[in-house]
Design brief:
The chain is an alpha+beta fold. The chain has 22 helices and 19 strands. Helix 8 (187-199) runs antiparallel to helix 9 and helix 9 packs across helix 10.
């Protein structure tokens, strides 16, 4: 039976069972920990078994991923290797077929006969529903109605022994030698075995593939040599054969002498050495040699192609890195970029290749959002909770925020944020260290520019290899707006952080000093909320003071829009750098028209959206809307 369509593992439903949830690593707690187990082969990769507490299948039904059944299949692969060697060998050397190898063949055939019986009890995967079928009648009908059953039976029957029982004589005719070749049908198990090994990430793909190629080569050499010897034994004139000219009376000589000569000829022919000491003599041998050499051309191409692919695969990232470095060197040379900037570009590119397996986006981009969120929560939740800005916020806020963050790596001495650039993101240091010009080391940066919505006040440079998480300004604003309480907590944390800055640090940011002075004046008049808990004596314990008014949240995060100086119907497919101007939305239409006149050099009278609808109320606009003024 071909097991390529059988199921991966069972889960109980009313009649069929889903295969996926029971793919567990050995001694696991119930989680899928080996992704190599999710494959189309009959069995999961080695090390993947059904968990101890898994629900059982129906009585007398075997799960194809059952550990004992998997070991049974692996044992049969060993027997297949013997069958692949013995079948051509017994065709060429009839004495071995009726002598010492006969009892071994009977034992091997008995094991495969047992496997035929077991196959009637092995559940399979229905391709139309991808559910595990465990009904005995369906399993039996599927097995019998396919080619697998008659071929399994034909390759298992000991025809020579049956003939001896019926006739009472031992027949050494060539027909039984060719019937024994039916056992080569079992080789499909070896192919499935190597397919599973190639999918198992715990085994080297290179060495697995390499062993497979060696096995293919040895089988080809062995089969050709045995068949070539068989041609010599059946030729009417033994002295006019390739081996008879070198070994007189070779038919009566030792079996292993003939086998050695056969393997010597086959290997020298495959390797295209051709010493000439063993060569075709009669017509039949010459015809066979022609076809064998043609076959060797294809086999050699197959071997060379696979080996080349394996070797190139290990060096493909190196080639890509060299090409990328050459492109950067060419670009910096043509544009005459400074040496320091060129070094930063090269350092970033080198780090990108060295940490390719650690880049979160490349690993997670094809996963569902729920899985990405769970992974980000596991990796970065503690980092967010320990950041001063998010201390005390709700669980919902952390869960929503962690799903939007992006992880990045920066090599040493690379600018992460440039002074006076537009504040699109702020960053949290996960590992490593960064340095703010004139302020020293920081664990969070870019927050002042984002929250006040002003150009970044400082340049931030990495001190050593650093991993940071990036939080987008737009996502942060959308998340804070509906969560008012969390917004107040973030505001209080931010104000407390600003108050903790040193005087020399505040001197670099006059806007912050003015804001703190205005806030102190407001706190003297504003009502405060005492957020506290009652102790056992029933007395209130003040923990934090938050202003009832939140000017920062309302004034520091204005709506940003993109304006264009033409009618929306005149949009061009490729506008390049003139696609629009990013501005803060003013309070009135007149101010917006004035800004557009300043940006585009002409006075407009009408404001429209991309679909042509005219804008009458600026309050209806949203973040990143495109406005067309003409």
């Amino acid at each position: 039976m071909s097991y390529s369509d059988t199921a991966r593992s069972p889960v109980p439903l009313s009649e069929t069972r889903s295969p996926m949830p029971l793919l567990f690593r050995r001694h696991s707690s119930g989680e899928i920990r080996n992704i190599a187990s999710v494959s189309s082969s009959i069995l999961p990769a080695f090390g993947t078994v059904i968990g101890e507490n898994s629900i059982k299948l129906k009585r007398f039904v075997i799960a194809p991923y059952d550990r004992r059944y998997r070991l049974w299949q692996t044992f049969l692969v060993v027997l297949v290797v013997y069958s692949a060697w013995a079948s051509p060998f017994e065709l060429a050397f009839k004495k071995a077929a009726t002598g010492g190898l006969l009892p071994v063949d009977l034992v091997v055939d008995a094991f495969f006969a047992i496997d035929i019986i077991l196959t009637f009890f092995v559940a399979y995967l229905d391709k139309s529903t991808y559910l595990l079928v465990e009904e005995h009648n369906k399993i039996a009908f599927r097995y019998i109605s396919h080619l697998w059953f008659p071929m399994d039976v034909a390759s298992t029957l000991p025809f020579q022994t049956i003939n001896r029982i019926v006739t009472g004589k031992m027949n050494r005719g060539p027909v039984f030698g060719f019937l024994n070749l039916l056992r080569l049908w079992r080789l499909r198990r070896v192919s499935e075995f190597f397919s599973r090994l190639e999918k198992d990430t715990r085994f080297s793909y290179f060495w697995t593939r390499y062993c497979k190629l060696i096995c293919v080569t040895l089988f080809a050499v062995h089969s050709a040599g045995c068949f070539y010897f068989w041609l010599a034994t059946r030729y009417h004139n033994a002295d006019s054969t390739w081996i008879g000219t070198n070994v007189p009376n070779f038919k009566t000589r030792s079996i292993w002498l003939g086998y050695t000569y056969s393997m010597y000829w086959s290997i020298t022919t495959l390797a295209t050495v051709g010493y000439g000491d063993l060569h075709a003599v009669n017509t039949e041998e010459k015809i066979f040699t022609i076809f064998y050499m043609l076959f060797n051309i294809g086999l050699t191409a197959y071997l060379i192609g696979n080996m080349t692919n394996l070797i190139v695969h290990t060096a493909v990232r190196t080639f890509a890195m060299r090409d990328a470095i050459n492109k950067i060197l060419s670009y910096t040379s043509k544009n005459r970029l400074p040496e320091g900037l060129k070094e930063q570009m090269l350092a970033h590119l080198t780090l990108k290749f060295k940490t390719a397996e650690l880049q979160q986006e490349q690993v997670l981009e094809d996963l569902p959002k729920a899985i990405r969120s769970s992974i980000s929560k596991h990796l970065f939740r503690t980092t967010l909770e320990n950041t001063y800005l998010f201390k005390g916020v709700s669980e919902d806020f952390i869960v929503q925020l962690v799903s939007e963050i992006k992880a990045e790596y920066f090599p040493p001495k690379v600018d992460i944020v440039i002074q006076n650039e537009i504040p699109t993101d702020f960053y949290i240091v996960v590992s490593g260290a960064v340095f703010l010009s004139k302020l020293g080391s920081q664990e969070m940066f870019g927050d002042i520019g984002v929250i006040f919505n002003i150009p970044q006040p400082f340049t931030v440079r990495s001190k050593r290899l650093s991993q940071v998480v990036r939080i987008n300004h737009h996502h942060f604003k959308q998340l804070v707006q509906p969560l008012k309480e969390d917004g107040k907590i973030i505001l209080a944390n931010f104000v407390q952080h600003l108050k903790g800055l040193k005087m020399e640090e505040l001197a670099e940011m006059p806007l912050i000093s003015e804001f703190l002075d205005d806030l102190d004046s407001e706190l003297q008049e504003a009502t405060v909320i005492e957020v506290g808990t009652q102790d056992q004596a029933g007395q209130a314990k003040q923990e934090n003071i938050i202003p009832t008014t939140t000017p920062v949240l309302s004034t520091t995060l204005p709506t940003r829009v993109i304006i264009h100086g033409y009618h929306p119907d005149n949009r061009r497919p490729n506008e390049g750098g003139n696609a629009g101007k990013l501005i803060h939305l003013p309070d009135s239409v007149e101010d917006l028209l004035s800004i557009a006149e300043t940006k585009f050099g002409k006075r407009g009278t009408t404001i429209a959206m991309a679909d042509g609808s005219q804008v009458e109320d600026l309050a209806a606009l949203r973040e990143d809307d495109h406005l067309y003024i003409f």
